[in-house]
Structure to design on (179 residues):
């Protein structure tokens, strides 16, 4: 799993970790807006790292938590889904609109291995000062450069360089941004 090799998600050790995370996410998603300390505590227990001033609004869902690293002052609006089967690095000052999906998990294209339950994953990296509009989907193995904006509803299947605006499905660069 960690090296991007094929694995079975029904492995007992993976299942134990998954149950722990599901319980933590459920507790997090039941918190109230007037409980910022409790929210922060739960995220710190759940995630690999959480930068100062970073906020994730519930509901929030992830696979393992410890593979997700969120930089300082980053903000995720309602409904973030982070399938962190591989590492996900989110830089500082990143803004994510509602219902963004960061998806590292992938499956074999061939029918038989997929039918037998094999999976793999590729890491995602998001630079500093990135804005992901509502409903953006970032696919396995993608790197998004710093100072880039991805328009609402875009599906990012390839790396995006620093300082661009990308929109559409699949996401395509429409212009550069002066920084």
């Amino acid at each position: 799993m960690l090296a991007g090799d094929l694995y079975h998600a029904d492995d007992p050790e993976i299942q134990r970790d998954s149950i722990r995370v599901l319980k933590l996410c459920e507790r997090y998603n039941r918190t109230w807006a007037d409980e910022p300390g409790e929210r922060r505590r739960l995220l710190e227990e759940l995630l690999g790292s959480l930068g100062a001033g970073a906020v994730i609004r519930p509901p929030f869902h992830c696979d393992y938590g410890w593979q997700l690293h969120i930089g300082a002052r980053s903000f995720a609006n309602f409904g973030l889904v982070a399938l962190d089967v591989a590492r996900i690095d989110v830089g500082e000052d990143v803004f994510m609109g509602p219902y963004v999906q960061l998806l590292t998990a992938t499956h074999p294209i061939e029918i038989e291995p997929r039918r037998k339950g094999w999976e793999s994953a590729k890491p995602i990296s998001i630079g500093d000062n990135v804005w992901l509009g509502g409903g953006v989907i970032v696919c396995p193995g993608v790197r998004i450069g710093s100072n880039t904006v991805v328009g609402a509803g875009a599906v990012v299947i390839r790396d995006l360089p620093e300082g661009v605006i990308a929109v559409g499905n699949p996401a395509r660069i429409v212009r550069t941004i002066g920084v």
In short: The first helix runs from residue 12 to 29.
